[in-house]
Write a structure and sequence with these properties.
- It is a single chain.
- By secondary structure, the chain is α+β, with helices and mostly antiparallel strands.
- It folds into three domains: 111 residues, Helix Hairpins (Orthogonal Bundle), CATH 1.10.287; 68 residues, Urease metallochaperone UreE, N-terminal domain (HSP40/DNAj peptide-binding domain, Sandwich), CATH 2.60.260.20; 91 residues, Sandwich (HSP40/DNAj peptide-binding domain).
- Helices cover 32% and strands 25% of the residues.
- The strands form six sheets. A four-stranded mixed β-sheet has the order 8-9-15-12. It has a three-stranded mixed β-sheet with strand order 3-7-6.
- Helix 3 packs antiparallel against helix 4.
- The chain is elongated, with a radius of gyration of 33 Å.
Length: 307
């Protein structure tokens, strides 16, 4: 289609909207017209099919802010009689079209709106986006989403989408051919994923992380402690005698598998202090205190204060 044919078209009139129409108004009107004029409902009616193509063409331009601005500018110039030679790109009311459009060939302005040269062939439908929420476990091991969406044609469609293992919060997955209808076939559907936080597990890259509560005696004397994993089984970590609060223990290969890479499970030790100690337990701690009173745990700390 020649550029002249494009800028002579009033896309606002095609949709039955004023030039001041907002994005939501344009989208709503397009959907209404698309349902009425869709070839599935108007089989054999060439006039209505042609009208559907015009509506789709108008929506593609007016629903895109950049394309709409370029169209409005060139359309305004055309309405003022500014183009003297649509194909030549020479003068317009004493000026130079190359200057107006910042250099280059001005006859391409409308061709650029349609993403190609001076001719426009059948176009695919627009890509669509929706959102879905999955659990932390599903993000680690993968899952299959079953979605029910409403299409531009007004007929609800069921969409099955595979979520690969190891996806992050905010990731997008693509489902080919499930977008809006177009003359050259439908566009694609993109699903934005939200991952629910887990009560005890978190992740950093391909590593899983967990905070392990331990008692004072386990940290002081050492212990073998079972730690849960997302796989459902337990792994045993060994605390060396005198393990400090905050030490991180690494369990190799028990993290997230993403492609050919598998992370680790990082276990952070958190020593628990009882809120109340009574009876023999309190007596035992007092004995411990007396037996260790020669050890000043703050000596090095105090010495650094004067540096």
């Amino acid at each position: 289609m020649a550029a002249k044919d494009l800028y002579e078209k009033d896309f606002y009139k095609v949709l039955g909207l004023p030039k001041t129409a907002q994005g939501d108004e344009i989208k709503k009107k397009y959907r209404t017209l698309a349902r009425e004029l869709h070839p599935d409902k108007t089989k054999g009616d060439s006039v209505r099919e042609e009208k559907f193509k015009e509506v789709s063409e108008a929506y593609e331009i007016l629903s895109d802010a950049k394309k709409r601005a370029e169209y409005d500018e060139a359309r305004s110039l055309f309405e003022r009689g500014g183009f003297r030679s649509p194909q030549g790109g020479q003068n317009f009311q004493g000026g130079d079209l190359n200057d107006l459009f910042g250099g280059g060939n001005p006859q391409d302005i409308f061709a650029n709106l349609f993403g190609g040269g001076g001719r426009r062939g059948p176009r695919k439908g627009q890509d669509l986006q929706t959102e879905a929420t999955i659990t932390f476990r599903e993000s680690v091991f993968g899952t299959t989403l079953e979605l029910k969406l409403t299409s531009d044609r007004g007929v609800p469609q069921n969409v099955s989408a595979r979520v690969p293992a190891g996806v992050n919060d905010g990731a997008k997955i693509r489902v080919k051919g499930k977008g809006a209808y177009g003359e050259a076939g439908p566009g694609d559907l993109f699903i934005l994923l939200h991952v629910k936080p887990h009560p005890i597990f978190s992740r950093k890259s391909e590593n899983l992380m967990i905070v392990l509560p331990v008692t004072f005696t386990e940290a002081a004397l050492g212990a073998d402690i079972k730690v849960p994993t997302l796989s459902g089984d337990d792994v045993t970590v060994r605390l060396a005698p005198g393990t400090p609060n905050g030490r991180v223990l690494r369990v190799k290969g028990r993290g997230i598998t993403k492609g050919s890479t598998t992370g680790d499970l990082l276990v952070t030790v958190e020593v628990q202090v009882p809120q109340r100690v009574e009876g023999k337990a309190a007596e035992a701690l007092r004995t411990f205190e007396k037996e260790t009173e020669s050890i000043d745990v703050r000596a090095e700390f105090i010495s650094k204060a004067s540096i």
